[in-house]
Amino acid sequence: MEFISKVDTCARKYHRTDIVFDTYQASSLKSETRSKRGQGARRRVTGTGKLPRNWRDILRHSANKAELFDYLAEKVVEHNSDNRVIVTKGPEALSNHPEYSLSEISPCSHEEADTRVFLHVKDAVKEGFKTVMISANDTDVLVIAVATFSHRPRTEFEVDPSA
Fold it and tell me: What is the DSSP string of 9-69?
């Protein structure tokens, strides 16, 4: 699975890798906005199903994305890595190293990964990490990162837009 190989590459390179997905809450302002855009086709996400031809249509349906993110989260946690990998699954956070406490980041009511990722950053800095690299393809994340890190002079950050 290509996704797991990318996670593995990051996990070998970094001591801690956090993967933060959006959540899809039924009764939220964001949910109302998504429903006005229309929904794509509903498909079950399983490890044995055929890959869809039209990803854009599949990813327009919130339930498809939620199931896909949950499936990927489970696969990440099952994957063996010496370094710690933390992944979100709905409001919860999971880790391949359960001996570490996730109480500062789980459960979480943030619906968007754009903001939730900064709870993970705060947790990593609190643990003593001095450098943080955020990989995201959303300019909102860059804006929030600049505002967040301007108050943390001893923490270096990099935003990689190639996510």
Answer: HHHHH-SEEEE------SSSHHHHHHHHH---------SSSPPPS-HHHHTTSHHHHHHHH
53, two tokens: 């031809």
Q: Map out the domains of the chain as residue ranges.
A: 2-160
Question: Which tens digits make up the pLDDT trace of 54-101?
Answer: 888 888 888 888 899 999 999 999 988 889 999 999 999 999 998 999
Which residue is listed with tokens 């933060």?
20
Are 94 and 84 within 8 A, CB to CB? no
Pairing of strands 131-135, 156-160: parallel
Of 163, 2, 3, 10, nearest in space to 81 by CA: 10
157 by DSSP, 3-state: which? Answer: strand
